[in-house]
Write a structure and sequence with these properties.
By secondary structure, the chain is α+β, with helices and mostly antiparallel strands. It has helices at residues 2-95, 100-145, 168-171, 181-194, 221-239, 264-270, 281-288, and strands at residues 153-158, 161-167, 201-207, 247-251, 272-278.
C-alpha cells in the first residue's frame, strides 16, 4: 500500500514538473520572438536611415559639382574682366599722349555732331509745322464742304499728303466726263479753300473701275480717267479762278484701286476723282541741304 502511494505521488510530481517546463518554454519562446521582432524593426529603421543618408550624400555631391562649375565660370569671368581692364588702362594711357592736332580733330568732330543735332531738330520742327498746316487745311476743307455724305467725298491725310476723294457718282453721269451741276457747287467750295493757299500746288487724278470702256471716241479707261481729270481742272481754273500753273491733271485708269472690283460697291468706290495737295518739295530740299560746316 505504501509503495503504491509512493508511486502515485512520484507520477503526479513528474507530470507537474513536466507541465511547468512547457509553460516556461512557451514564455521564453514568446519573449525571444518579441525581442526578434523589435530587433528586426530596429534593423529596418537603421536601413532606411542609411538609404536616406546615401541619397543625401549623392545629392550633396551633385550640388557640389554644380557649385564648382559656377566657381570655375566666375573665375573665368574675373580673369576676362581683369584682361579687359588692363586693355582699357593701356588705351587710356595711349589717349593721354594724343597730339595737339588729334585733339583739334576731336573737337572739330564734336562741333559737327552738335551742328547735325541742331539740323535734325530744325527738320523736326519743320515737319511738325507742315503737319499742323495740313491739319488746318483739312479742317477748313471739311468746314467749307459741310455735311456731305462720306461715300461721296472723303478728305484725309496719308503720310503727310492731303487727299480729297470725290466719287464719280457725284461728279459725273455713268460713262460720262461732263461734270454735273451739283458737283460744280462742291468743287466751288473746295476751290474757295484752295485759293487761300497760293503757294501750294494741286494735282487732279481720274480713277476708274476695271470694266472696259468702249463709248464714242474714247478708246479705254485711260482715256476716260484723263478726260474726267481735265474736266475738273477746267472748272477749277475757268469757273473758280485757280491758278492754272499750280494745277496738273492725271489719269490713273483702273490701276490704283482703293478696294476690290469684284462687287458693285467696290467698283463704285474705285470710280473716283482725287485732288492731291502736292507737298512743297523745294522747301524740303532746302532743309535737307547739308548745313555749312564751321
Amino acid at each position: 500500500m505504501k509503495i503504491q502511494r509512493f508511486l502515485t505521488v512520484a507520477f503526479c510530481s513528474i507530470i507537474f514538473f513536466s507541465c511547468v517546463s512547457t509553460k516556461k518554454f512557451k514564455t521564453m519562446q514568446e519573449t525571444w520572438q518579441t525581442r526578434y521582432d523589435s530587433l528586426n524593426r530596429a534593423y529596418a529603421n537603421t536601413q532606411a536611415t542609411l538609404n536616406t543618408c546615401n541619397d543625401s550624400t549623392a545629392s550633396m555631391a551633385t550640388q557640389r559639382s554644380a557649385l564648382q562649375s559656377q566657381i570655375d565660370n566666375l573665375n573665368k569671368q574675373v580673369a576676362m574682366l581683369k584682361e579687359n581692364n588692363t586693355q582699357a588702362l593701356r588705351q587710356l594711357q595711349d589717349m593721354s599722349v594724343i597730339s595737339a592736332s588729334q585733339a583739334a580733330s576731336i573737337t572739330k568732330s564734336l562741333e559737327n555732331i552738335g551742328a547735325k543735332d541742331v539740323y535734325i531738330q530744325d527738320l523736326q520742327k519743320a515737319m511738325a509745322h507742315k503737319d499742323s498746316l495740313n491739319m488746318a487745311l483739312v479742317m477748313n476743307l471739311k468746314g467749307a464742304i459741310g455735311n456731305m455724305d462720306d461715300q461721296d467725298i472723303n478728305i484725309k491725310v496719308d503720310k503727310g499728303v492731303i487727299y480729297i476723294d470725290i466719287s464719280d457718282k457725284l461728279l459725273f453721269k455713268s460713262g460720262s466726263y461732263d461734270v454735273t451741276e451739283k458737283a460744280k457747287g462742291v468743287l466751288g467750295k473746295v476751290a474757295l479753300v484752295l485759293k487761300n493757299q497760293p503757294d501750294m500746288e494741286f494735282m487732279v487724278e481720274g480713277h476708274t473701275d476695271n470694266i472696259p470702256y468702249k463709248r464714242g471716241v474714247l478708246v479705254d479707261n485711260w482715256d476716260l480717267s484723263v478726260k474726267r481729270a481735265t474736266s475738273v481742272v477746267r472748272i477749277l481754273q475757268k469757273k473758280y479762278g485757280l491758278e492754272p500753273s499750280k494745277i496738273s491733271a492725271s489719269g490713273r485708269s483702273e490701276y490704283v484701286p482703293v478696294t476690290t472690283n469684284d462687287t458693285p460697291e467696290g467698283r463704285a468706290a474705285n470710280r473716283r476723282t482725287r485732288i492731291v495737295v502736292l507737298p512743297q518739295l523745294d522747301q524740303f530740299f532746302k532743309l535737307l541741304e547739308s548745313p555749312k560746316q564751321p
